Amino acid sequence: QVQLVESGGGLVQAGGSLRLSCAASGRTFRSYAVGWFRQAPGKEQEFVAAKRWSSGSTYYADSVKGRFTISKHNAEITVYLQMNSLKPEDTALYYCAARKDEGVFTPTRTSTYDYWGQGTQVTVSS
User: Fold this and answer.
1) How far is residue 72's CA from residue 52's CA, in Å, rounded to a whole number?
2) Mean pLDDT for the chain overall
């Protein structure tokens, strides 16, 4: 019912910035929550950030806290991940995920989310 499409990935130098976008279609996200995950080659998928539409609550992994910001456009069904002060270790395929925002919310678990995008590649050179 919900389609997610990520964009904005690319190649940047260490210390640079990128803004990832996650566009949703099929249903409104008024009562949904979204999360960002990433997976580097040879590594397990890890949680990056999440946001609940209804409450506006945000969640961040310790590794990106203070550098990454998750937000939602006021007039569009689009979620952003602003990534500043990028490091080579941020290099990964980034995924947008979504779920209906109800009940207990555990943002760091992949099993929390019902819908996933195709991913967008972020590469940070040293």
Assistant:
1) 10
2) 92
Show Cβ contacts of residue 79 under 8 Å, excluding neighbours closer than 6 positions.
21, 22, 24, 29, 34, 51, 70, 71, 72, 73, 96
Residues in the chain: 126
Q: Are 116 and 45 in contact (CB under 8 A)?
A: no
What are the structure tokens assigned to 94, written together? 């980034």
Is 47 exposed, middle or buried (CB count within 10 Å of its CB: 0-12, 13-18, 19+)? Answer: buried
| Residue 72 confidence (pLDDT) | 85
Residue 29's pLDDT is: 57
Query: What's the CA gap between 18 and 48, in Å, rounded?
Result: 14
